[in-house]
Amino acid sequence: MERQSFRELSGQVGATFRLEDFQIVNGCQTSNVLYDVREILSTETYLPIKLIATQDSEITNSTIRATNRQTEVKEEAFEALAEFHKGLEEFYNSQVTDDVSDYRLRYERRSGQYRYDDGVIPADIISMPIHLQCYVAMFLGQPHGTHRYYGNILVQHRGDVFHRTHSLWPYYTAGLSLKVLDTLIVRGIVDRRVKGLRYQMLFLMRCAMGDSPAPTDDRKMRGFCLDLIAILRNPRRAETLFAAFAAALLAELDATGTQRHRGGWDASRRRDFTARLEREATNIRALVDPEVA
Asked: Would 1 be classed as within a structural domain?
């Protein structure tokens, strides 16, 4: 398909344009300067702009990348442009129904996108960096690696996370698990000492369900996650399980003699501690299904 000009796409033949659903892909500095000198601007002030109209998302993404190269922009800043994240955002929104109002959750793929939305509270928002940590801890089994900078985690697991062939179910489940856990900690139902070990708690929750299917097998992964979601949306079961996980986790910390300091628990960054937790998987599963023991 040949590329069409702005005039062809918009039907515009004059010198005046009406813009709808537009994005300013580069202009932060210009906008700030214009605001600072707004008192002296007049109708004789003109600002050169370039209008690009396209229905091709690849062209849009390429334009955003190309026009944001005057200053150094880290590659992870462009991750939100991937179609996967748009699909995940829509998937999150599809889970918001009246019968699960206590578990509302919004995926914020672009920083600040819900800033002016009165219907969304901060506690119901999960950002892309936090989401990455949840998924890596819960479904890749590496809670000890979540303390690093988001960009480094993304590079290390490139191909293992946010892949277009992946089922969206484990991503939503990981986000919901963190939401429920944080709520229980705030309410004092789960020991607050595990706040710095939240990703280990998510790892234990996944262990309680057994080995998860491959992320590319949507049918099996959907069934696996729906079983887990049923627990998360059952207040009594979620409280019982997370409280038990916290007790088991604190017991392991005592057994290993790990230290707690201002920055958190030493064990949270240790691979061998994750391995100890994984060896306890059978006991953890027994909390969900007593017949396993």
From this structure: no
Clarify whether residues 95 and 222 are in a common domain.
Answer: yes
- Give the DSSP H or E segment for 245: helix 235-256
Domain count, the chain: 2
Tell me the per-residue pLDDT of 236-285, one tens digit each, with 9 for 90 and over.
999 988 998 898 888 888 887 776 765 567 788 888 888 888 887 767 77
Q: What is the mean pLDDT of the chain?
A: 80
pLDDT tens-place string over residues 65-101: 556 555 554 555 667 778 899 899 999 988 865 555 5
Amino acid 239 reads E
Rounded-to-integer distance, Cα 185 and Cα 24, Å: 40
Domain co-membership, 40 together with 136: no
CA–CA dist 249, 258 (Å, integer): 11
**23 in the same domain as 88:** no
Is 67 domain-assigned? yes
Please say whether the beta carbons of 180 and 201 come within 8 A. no
Alpha carbon distance 284, 262 (integer Å) = 29
